[in-house]
């Protein structure tokens, strides 16, 4: 049985649906990503999972519980890092960690957690005096301190420097490997690609696609991107007739082709036949970035 089950979720603000029939199921022990453009309905969805918002229609079950009706029970095993949070400005990092530990029956040791999040030097600093990234790290610690079975992380690494971001990814992988289920809202494709076992792409309040990162890349944007600047103009119809082609873009004399290995081979033959040299030739695997743009563009058109 999935540990989180969202079925036909709908949430309307002022007559406009922010979430419109979203369904997905999260298996225990996976990192499940929610990806989508600004205003797509991601935060609204996860806040319904956390019991912070009441759905207008549909059902949400977290470990069999209704997050709104059973909120007290839910908070015992669900940790949450909200997109925007505040603490009392005078509270020190240490006080916050001790206070939150006291809320849970079997909290984690806060010292190693603080160490992992680079907060040891800041234990005596007041919340108001922390930098944005340090506040973010504290909120991650507070989401994990109760030793939750499920953790919801909204914009996990926004505002973190590259090193802190990578350290946080490793920490979240370890959290997952210890059996915790992670529901992650993110804007960072690299983060989603590295961390998530599966991803729901949400666009305009609906699920546009749900798959593994590899699956999304394969079905949305082809596997491979080849780009080059030809020594002389190429016939557009020849390009559009390439096998297994997903898309062709021409910009400032540079050609970018999305397709498969077969497409790449056909491009090379085409260039050879026409005795055209390809300058600055690059062949790369498509990324989740490509898939995201492709999937969300398709929704808009
Ligand atoms: N309390 C509210 N009252 C009215 N409208 C709201 C409220 N909260 C969210 N919305 C609207 O609902 C839509 C979805 O918002 P939501 O915060 O869920 O999006 P999101 O995908 O998390 O966006 P972002 O990536 O920008 O954080 C937006 O159009 C937003 O303006």
TrEMBL record:
It comes from Actinomadura rugatobispora. GO terms for molecular function: ATP binding. Residues 4-229 form the ABC transporter domain. The lineage of its organism: Bacteria, Bacillati, Actinomycetota, Actinomycetes, Streptosporangiales. It is a peripheral membrane protein. The keyword Ribosomal protein does not apply. Keywords: Antibiotic resistance, ATP-binding, Nucleotide-binding, Transport. It comes from the Bacteria. This is ABC transporter ATP-binding protein. InterPro entries: AAA+_ATPase (IPR003593), ABC_transporter-like_ATP-bd (IPR003439), ABC_transporter-like_CS (IPR017871), ABC_transporter_ATP-binding (IPR050763), P-loop_NTPase (IPR027417). PROSITE patterns: ABC_TRANSPORTER_1 (PS00211), ABC_TRANSPORTER_2 (PS50893). It is found in: Cell membrane.
């Amino acid at each position: 049985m999935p540990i989180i089950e969202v079925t036909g979720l709908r949430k309307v603000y002022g007559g406009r649906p922010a979430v419109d029939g979203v369904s997905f199921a999260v298996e225990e022990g996976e990192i499940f990503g929610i990806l989508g453009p600004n205003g797509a309905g991601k935060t609204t969805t996860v806040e319904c999972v956390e019991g912070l918002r009441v759905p207008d229609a549909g059902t949400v079950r977290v470990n069999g519980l209704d997050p709104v009706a059973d909120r007290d029970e839910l908070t015992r095993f669900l940790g949450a890092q909200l997109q925007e949070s505040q603490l009392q400005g005078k509270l020190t990092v240490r006080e916050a960690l001790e206070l939150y530990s006291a809320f849970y029956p079997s909290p984690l040791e806060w010292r190693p957690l603080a160490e992992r999040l680079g907060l040891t030097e800041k234990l005596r600093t007041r919340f108001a005096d922390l930098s944005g990234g340090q506040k973010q790290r504290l909120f991650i610690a507070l989401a994990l301190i109760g030793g939750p079975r499920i953790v919801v992380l909204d914009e996990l690494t926004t505002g973190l420097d590259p090193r802190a971001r990578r350290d946080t990814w490793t920490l979240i992988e370890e959290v997952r490997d210890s059996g915790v289920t992670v529901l992650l809202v993110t804007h960072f494709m690299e983060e989603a690609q590295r961390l998530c076992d599966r991803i729901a792409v949400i666009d305009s309040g609906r699920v546009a696609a749900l798959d593994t990162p590899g699956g999304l890349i394969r079905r949305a944007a082809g596997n491979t991107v080849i780009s080059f600047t030809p020594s002389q103009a190429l016939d557009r119809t020849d390009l559009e007739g390439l096998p297994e082609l997903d898309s062709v873009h021409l910009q400032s004399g540079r050609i970018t082709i999305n397709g498969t290995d077969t497409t790449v081979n056909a491009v090379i033959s085409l260039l050879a036949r026409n005795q055209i040299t390809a300058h600055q030739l690059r062949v790369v695997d498509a990324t989740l970035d490509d898939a995201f743009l492709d999937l969300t563009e398709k929704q808009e058109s």
